[in-house]
């Protein structure tokens, strides 16, 4: 028999001429639905987790560490005052591969308002960083006030605070914020209170990252706080944070700064976070793939039933010269069709759910809140909105993996079909 004849037999297995649906045909199409239903959540998980991880990564790089984070030793001549430190930071723009440098001074403190207090992470930054730095400009959302007030010169300098801190301390734009740090008076360490005005309330959409941040002008930082316990950092930007050449740029920066600073890549600074992100995604994908594996077992069961129903046809074909391999191939192609049809249904539906993920979550949140108060996308743990990204390469791997799995689970019952003896088929 020719290949065309075997393909025609495959077609008759999938689309029988008899109008009555048999148990095997129902089982065959049931397996297609099972594959589709298992592919939908896998595509959604891949798209949503990819978007979430990339969104968090973008904020960690752009708002926290920079492409390279340079930690400068405290007490050297370059950190004596704001002018020298800013000039020192700008000197690294001349390094090949570095495009921008942002000086920053950090200090842990206590923020107080009306008897309520909370820990704070003070960030002394350039007064125009919210306009000059692309990440600050695009990733921060201003809820109240104006970030340009950071440039205002006044007796009481302005500070920019996070949304979480504003809620905790009941602060709004224009309110007074007190920062408690320490200073040394002789041999005694005493508290020091510094007053700022709230210029703006902002959020990166990732509360775990910015809940303690207070941005103050770097000039006011040097004037207001004791530098003994401060950390001096320089955020360096390159053309591409994900470029393989980032290691070479890191080496050149380290060579220029010498022993007075250490230079770290963004993936080194945030190594523990990214390991957590990756392990979570791998675990979710593994669970989804196991669901697809279980669903694919239905294909094997459906083919077993199909073989039992078509034993007479197999006997007739073998009597007319059909080879065992040809019969086996027909049933394997039937299993492959089930996987392909399941993907044809599941992939588009999964992509639609992914694209509409924010709307679906808001609807679910609204419906659940009719009975109890629940916030599904709490920014304390996740991003406020899901920046969905379609991982094309990973979805292609899912398609290939599902098709291969469909073939593998079809092999044993298909080989058994090829081994059927014509004499046994005619006895039925």
- Overall mean pLDDT stands at 85
The spatial strand order of the largest sheet comes to 2-3-8-5-7-6
Helix content: 40-55%
- Beta-strand share of residues: 15-25%
Backbone CA Rg: 32 Å
Shape: elongated
What is the number of strand segments?
10
The biggest sheet amounts to: 6 strands, mixed, barrel
Q: What are the segments in which pLDDT stays under 50 over at least 5 consecutive residues?
A: none
Number of helices: 16
Q: Which structural category fits the helices and strands?
A: alpha+beta
Q: What separation lies between the terminal Cα atoms?
A: 24 Å
Order of helices and strands: HHEHEEHHEEHEEHEHEHEHHHHHHH
Provide structural commentary.
This protein is an alpha+beta fold and 428 residues long. Helix content is 54%, strand content 20%. The protein has 16 helices and ten strands. Strands 2-3-8-5-7-6 form a six-stranded mixed barrel. Helix 1 (3-14) packs across helix 13 (324-355) and helix 13 (324-355) packs antiparallel against helix 15. It is elongated, with a radius of gyration of 32 Å. The two termini are 24 Å apart.
Labels describing this entry:
single chain, 428 residues, alpha+beta, 10 strands, elongated, 20% strand, six-stranded mixed barrel
